[in-house]
From TrEMBL:
This is NYN domain-containing protein. It comes from the Bacteria. It comes from Dorea hominis. Residues 159-243 form the HTH OST-type domain. Transmembrane segments: none annotated.
Length: 309
């Protein structure tokens, strides 16, 4: 992304001055910062901590008086300036720094115009603003890099289990197309799915180290290329699970007898053993497969497909 130009717009009402150096360092990874503006009522003592930082870092303060109690004039000033800069068409992207969801529509509008938008805000930043950005960075994570003793917990809703599930889907999709899944692709697609995904939220500074803790995944180095693949046992089970889903779904409403299902599996996967996956009985394994239920018809067990709602 070398050579790209960014406009940095900071909402002083919702961001602490302690973040300014990490913000500038992080944004410099994406390109050159050609606009550096910060918005607030500088007659207020609330922003006194910002004043020294503005001079040190050549940030232009934009005065916005609070004319009416309870109304955020700062938001309006930032939005107007952002649109003015957009129409000059001399930047490739914007960095909007705020923990306020009021900028969600602005971010969407900038992206509609083909601009890359990086959002930055504290952990408390609402979901709509995070999701609207191409990439969202949690400010506490940036401080963690400067102060190794600090630790932050990942935001609620983006569990490691969900991340692993998304990566497994990527690998299976690529496998269907006879394509390997590279480490770089995993990182890019995770950010596309979850703009606020950041390994620093989980105490890591490298995606490769983060992925090493997932039980279903392994990294395979091939020269300079690092591929992400399913570990042998988990990979085989995932493949067999998909085969079972297809067999049962194609059987229709009547389903398929477990004895027949078992024969089909063992014919296709001769080394398949339910013990390898922690099950003592075949019907227990079948019940573990997503979207499959097992029903009893007299003395016969039948597997049926259940559609996801």
């Amino acid at each position: 992304m070398d050579g790209q130009c960014y406009a940095l717009l900071i909402d002083a009402d919702n961001v602490s001055a302690k973040y300014i150096k990490p913000i500038l360092t992080e944004l410099a990874r994406y390109g050159n910062i050609t606009y550096k503006r910060i918005y607030g009522d500088w007659t207020s003592t609330q922003h006194s901590s910002w004043k020294d930082e503005l001079l040190k870092n050549s940030i232009t303060p934009i005065q916005q008086f609070s004319y009416t109690q309870g109304k955020n004039a700062t938001d309006s000033a930032m939005i107007i300036d952002a649109m003015d800069i957009l129409y000059t068409n001399d930047v490739d992207g914007f960095c909007i720094v705020s923990s306020d969801s009021d900028f969600t529509r602005l971010v969407s509008r900038l992206r509609e115009s083909g601009k890359n938008v990086i959002g930055m805000g504290e952990n408390k930043t609402p979901e709509p603003f995070r999701k609207a950005c191409d990439k969202f960075t949690i400010l506490e994570n940036l401080l963690n890099e400067q102060e190794p003793g600090r630790t932050e917990t990942p935001r609620e809703g983006l569990s490691k289990e969900k991340i692993e599930e998304d990566i497994v889907k990527m690998i299976l999709e690529n496998d269907d197309n006879n394509k390997q899944t590279g480490l770089g692709e995993v990182g890019s697609r995770l950010v596309s799915l979850h703009p606020d995904f950041d390994v620093r939220s989980y105490g890591y500074n490298m995606l490769s180290k983060f992925l090493e803790e997932f039980p279903k995944l392994e990294l395979v180095k091939k020269g300079k290329f690092v591929a992400v693949s399913l570990k042998e046992n988990h990979g085989k089970k995932t493949v067999v699970d998909r085969y079972v889903q297809n067999l049962v779904k194609n059987a229709g409403e009547k389903g398929i007898e477990l004895s027949t299902l078992g024969n089909r599996i063992y014919e296709k996967y001769k080394d398949f053993k339910i013990n390898d996956y922690g099950y003592a009985q075949f019907n227990q394994y079948v019940k573990s497969v997503d979207q499959i239920r097992v029903e009893k018809a007299g003395t016969i067990l039948i597997a049926k497909y259940k559609e996801q709602k």
